[in-house]
Predict the 3D structure of the following.
Amino acid sequence: MIRIQNVTFQYKGSEQGGVRDISLSVHEGETILLCGSSGSGKTTVMRLINGLIPHYYKGELSGSVMVDGMDIGNTELYDLAGIVGTVFQNPRSQFFSVDTDGEIVFGPENIGLQPEEIRRRKDLVTEEMALSSLLNRSLFELSGGEKQRIACASVAALLPKNVLLDEPSSNLDWKAIGNLRRVIQRWKEQGKTILISEHRLWYVQDLVDRVLFIRNGQIEQEWSGTAFRAMDGAALQRMELRASTVEQNFSLTQHENRETNPTAGEICFKDFYFNYEKKQRLFHRKNTQNDPDGHLTLRVPDFCLRRGCVTGLIGSNGAGKTTLLRCICGLEKGCGGRIELNGQRYIGKKKLSLCYLVMQDVNHQLFTDSVEGEVLLSMDRQDSKAVSEILASLNLADYAGTHPMALSGGQKQRVAIASAMAAKAELLLFDEPTSGLDYVHMCSVAKLLRNLAEAGKTILVSTHDPELLSLCADDILHIEGGQITEHYDLNKDTIGKLGAFFTEQIG
Amino acid sequence: MDAGMDRSRTKLHLDPRTKLFMVFVVSVIVLMTATTPLTWALRIGITFVPLALLVAEGRVVSALRFGVLYAVALVLLRFFISAESTGLLMSLLIGYCAIVAQFMPVIIMAWYLIRTTQIGEFMSAMQKMHVPDGISISLAVVMRFFPTFKEEYAAIRDAMRMRGIMLGGGSIVKMVEYRMVPLLFSCVNIGDELSAAAITRGLGANVKRTSVIELKLTVTDKLLMLCFACLAALFVAAKYWKAL
């Protein structure tokens, strides 16, 4: 039983993300979905319930929040540990241990349970969530999806009656989302009270009893689960929400009026072979793995991308998508391979001059103290006129003097793209550019990719987000087990194929 | 018994308390200057213990790397460098060799401690030694952050390589700045989210923290501790009791 009464909260030193006069009561065993754009206040609602507000995040708070008869404002956070459990968005930053076993027992150890009881609970959640294959492993070698399963398990080990999930699918592929869905389903069967805040609605919509739409810090609309499931895609888009069914992820509405330049030619990639050396060696040995029979992480002898087009790179988790991107831009030293463009061959480090990779965590690739400096850093010759042109084309002109770390996620991404343009990169590679983005931001990434393509750049984007592909991809490159299995134009006839790939993954 | 115990049975598995004691002893020896051949022999001899332990844990490559580095520094210091050596290169080499020869034993020991100890074990050991939770939790966070630093640093280096700014345009300040600024930002962010996640799972509760890992000192542990205690005593005696 969760009761929020007339709560207003404003973060200290920030205008954004607060809530205004929110009231909400959730019955025991109910499953609630909170939707709405980023910054609408979904996360704030979660933090009000798990006590991080007011105990960890400071600000001005009025009103009262009660969970199972406890007043959150007057209860210490550690006393809430066995009552409210929270699964967070980022799998990388929510584990405390280095190994999986330690992580699952971390909560019960904190609240001082007896070792026998802790072991019993660990066995219980391991059994329930089928985690035995993940036990006794280093958390740093797990995939994002596996980390998120451990995060769920460590929450479950505290046996909380209320579970909050704050955008838990942001960094997951469809297979991991399928697993997450099964965990939520089980918690629902166990009668837990569940609140899920999400942008991706399709995987939870049939589990929820009520849906709340939050905008500007207020609950603007409320539907029963049945009423929400009856809504069509267009209505959702008007509210700037993402697809609520699996099928809506695959609609090619904006595909018709698209122009590509058939004479633009191709960029070709030859002989990309690579193997991750797992075994530690005494001295680093450069390995040119052109052995055609050996087991390789990546075996891509030959493919071409149409210039001025957006190509979506898909494949299941661990198929080699990121490895391929890294090899193409020359970040993997052991990988040979060459790029051919306009009759010229680019090998080794020369590939770097042709490509630019926009990383999944864009924070890693911003180095200077101003947006302008960031762009200048990529130029051989300092040309401030060109800089302002590039910034203007990416809607960054007003931020030329701003520190990149003070920008929003989408703006940071555009700064990275700006420096790619300044470096005169022909081929832009994107690694999961839309993970954790809401509908509006996802659309603006799609539009940005289209604009870049129309300006003549060649785009290769690795993604788990079929909505993004439906909006902007011309071609699909499918990779499995380090090899290209399919390469096709995305159109009305082939969209089914794309759909089949993703739906198979959910399992 | 759970799966976590399997690993301990297959390999030599020391109690974290033993490892901490060994780090302490080696630090003491390293921080006192060796003057006589006997003290030098003791100091070099004690370096073989963590090397042997690394080999016993199956980390042969690391042991070899450390061993070679240490040996080279010792040989250079003993035979090729004298007090009369001059020049920039020579003085750099002297400084480098002296640091390696002086501190390598404790570096190897600490590396062994970090690499072969699970955080759970470590916390359990700290509890047994009645160290306050505040201290043991902080140390555990430090241990947890090593791999995070490594991951973040590798990602940043990739990004630098891609933009061709590894050398910071020839400026050492820039080289450091480009590495440190993004690293600090992302570590602060991770740390912030990490603490939020940890306290929602009861970290800092005012009950006595428990541990599923039950530690017991084995015969090997006791022998090693005794052996190290003797070595420390011998070293101190050799240094301050002139008769030896």
